[in-house]
Write a structure and sequence with these properties.
mainly alpha, 0% strand, rod-shaped
Length: 162
């Protein structure tokens, strides 16, 4: 064994240990940076778009085709906003104290929108019309239920803290 190979091996192993240490140190930072944090303004914009669609659905309850489309679009926007809120909370170092309340309200609003959309779609396919022979009482009863669901969803969506 020569005298020159000993320092070279030492430097090689020292470099290898430093490189492995740097890689181990960088791994958690890279893993966390891979999670995309969603912008709160974008989330708020989705919530506001859902709110607008819900209000439009309330105004168009006379046209069940348009109302179903608006309710489903409102549900999709609100669900996307909720998903982004959940992703932000799961990647956050400290959980926002308002997150649980906002998430619960979003879940409730989604449930109301789902119920309204299902009622509209079911009655649309059943052929319930506002001007039936019985004076429209069956249609008015179901529309009142749909209206209550959408109004409750509007109240809950309006109170979301993002």
């Amino acid at each position: 064994m020569s005298l020159d190979s000993d320092p070279v091996r030492r430097y090689f192993w020292l470099a290898m240990v430093l490189w492995l240490g740097a890689a181990a140190w960088a791994s958690p930072a890279l893993a966390q940076s891979g999670r995309g944090q969603y912008d709160a303004a974008d989330i708020q914009q989705k919530v506001q778009k859902s709110l607008t669609l819900q209000q439009q659905a309330l105004q168009s309850l006379g046209d069940s085709n348009q109302a179903v489309t608006l309710v489903r679009s409102a549900w999709t926007e609100l669900r996307a906003a909720q998903h982004e809120m959940i992703m932000n909370a799961s990647g956050a170092k400290y959980v926002d104290p308002l997150f649980e309340m906002s998430n619960r309200r979003a879940e409730e609003a989604l449930g109301h929108l789902q119920a309204a959309g299902d009622a509209l779609a079911t009655n649309r396919s059943a052929g319930v019309r506002v001007n039936d022979e019985d004076g429209g009482q069956a249609a008015n009863a179901y529309l009142a239920g749909v209206r209550r669901h959408i109004e409750q969803a509007v109240r809950l969506t309006n109170s979301l803290a993002v």
